[in-house]
Amino acid sequence: MGEEYKSKVFKSGNSLALRLPKALGLQEGEEVTLVSHDDGSFFFWRQDRAREVLMGLYGSMSAGFMADGRDDTAQDDRDWSHAATQAA
User: Fold this and answer.
1) How far apart are CA 76 and CA 88, in angstroms?
2) What does pTM read for this prediction?
3) What is the average pLDDT score of the chain?
4) Looking at residue 60, what is its pLDDT?
5) Once rounded to an integer, what is the mean pLDDT over residues 46-70?
6) 27: closest CA among 8, 51, 46, 50?
7) Which intervals hold domain SpoVT-AbrB (predicted)?
8) Distance CA 7, CA 19 (A)
């Protein structure tokens, strides 16, 4: 794990903002992806690293990750005979 930084949330217009330390190496205007977790924690990464982050998550799954399937629930049959004539 890397360095730990503390910051405060402040109001900026009608939004909330978080001042990030320069030491993180972000540049003004750089886009980031921010993900909130159910436990209240957040994770973010540079947008240009999205593929790298995704592939890292993929590689972290165990070999038997979906060995038992997705455990989907059964769905009723649908009548698609008139679906092409209806507008979305």
Assistant:
1) 21
2) 0.45
3) 79
4) 67
5) 70
6) 46
7) 9-41
8) 6
